[in-house]
Specification:
Its main location: membrane. This protein has 348 residues and is α+β, with helices and mostly antiparallel strands. The chain is built from 8 helices and 16 strands. It has an 8-stranded antiparallel β-sheet.
Length: 348
């Protein structure tokens, strides 16, 4: 899922009575590769805390459990039809959240869309150039429907089995697992007594406490979806404290069919099987945890704008910004009532 979030990490000193060096904390940062993307962590603690081994362990856990890009991961074993693949609590947590979002968005968030994602060449099977025919898309829709899958306890502690009513389904959590990894890293930090931090994985962010260097909430930028490649431009900045933010957009990950000139995007509509652009250019979601923010951002990216307008008043657990192109060719914005309270400059 193409991200439309840019992490703004401020390294300048905050002008106040005390300089950062005089304050009673240490500033620590960590960067690296994680589940096919990058991560960054900034946190403040009373003393030096080495979290890199724990972060590496969590990344390995998620790769081996839920990455369709890791050949023998648990999810790939399930997709290959291996009998009695046992998964652990982190897999069940993602599965349960995905089912919740699937139900509340009337199926527009659907992790069983993987066969279609692969068919359009955006998946892990490596076939990047193909464009499926309408007949192929229709035939693959039979394998889509998260309501056809279930997870039940196994005969070992904290272990579960995933089953489906339809053989041949392809499950992928790429549109939600980064958010869950963010949440797991945040929990690890809090278990170590760290309460002021910013964790980002592939553009998905959770912010706790404050940026103590600046003595203010964390600033996170939202990209302008009309920007040109190599010319990054911010649309606005939000201030976060004890909240998560995730975004989805198709402006970085798409392809053009040479034969027809048709543009295809990586966000596949699970109800129609189509991967064509809509008027919605980007979605940003604020929630209490990054798993919810990540999943809902994908759902509203796949959803027609009018459908979003009807559903959002019933989803009190999230705040949403939708960026879309108006019929006049101008960039337009719609937000839930609470989203604007997070904007740093209130300029949307």
């Amino acid at each position: 899922m193409s991200r439309i979030l840019l992490l703004i990490v401020a390294f300048s000193l905050f002008s106040c009575k005390e300089s950062p060096s005089e304050l009673d904390f240490t500033t620590q940062e960590l960067y690296g590769q994680a589940i096919g993307t990058t991560y960054s962590i900034k946190y403040f603690a009373d003393s030096e805390i080495d979290i890199e081994p724990q972060v590496d362990s969590l990344i390995s856990l998620f790769n081996e459990s839920m990455s369709t890009w890791v050949p023998n991961s648990k999810i790939n074993q399930i997709n290959a039809g291996v009998d009695s693949v046992m998964v652990r609590k982190e897999f069940k947590e993602v599965f349960d959240y995905a089912q919740e979002i699937y139900r509340k968005t009337d199926g527009y968030f659907d992790p069983t869309v993987g066969n279609l994602v692969n068919a359009y060449g955006f998946g892990a099977d490596g076939q990047k150039e193909k464009i499926p025919s309408p007949a192929t898309v229709d035939s693959l829709l039979q394998f889509v429907g998260f309501n056809k899958m279930d997870i039940t306890p196994a005969n070992q502690p904290e272990s579960y089995l995933v089953s489906s009513q339809q053989p041949g389904m392809y499950l992928e959590f790429n549109a939600i697992a980064k958010g869950t990894l963010v949440d797991y890293i945040a929990r690890m930090l809090e278990n170590k007594g760290v309460m002021d931090y910013l964790v980002e994985v592939g553009g998905e962010v959770i912010a706790s406490g404050e940026n103590l260097e600046k003595q203010q909430p964390w600033n996170v930028g939202i990209d302008d979806p009309t920007q040109q490649p190599g010319d990054r431009k911010l649309l606005t900045v939000v201030q976060l404290k004890d909240k998560a933010l995730a975004g989805s957009g198709n402006f970085r990950k798409f392809k053009i069919d040479d034969a027809s000139g048709q543009e295809y995007v990586h966000t596949v509509n699970p109800l129609t099987g189509k991967a064509v652009p809509s008027e919605v250019l980007g979605v940003n979601v604020i929630a209490d945890n990054c798993t919810l923010a990540d999943g809902y951002a994908t759902a509203f990216m796949a959803m027609p704008l009018e459908k979003s307008r009807r559903l959002l008043p019933n989803l009190k657990e999230i705040e949403v910004l939708i960026i879309y192109m108006g019929t006049d060719g101008a960039l337009k914005f719609e937000t839930t009532p609470g989203f604007k309270s997070y904007l740093k400059n209130q300029a949307l």
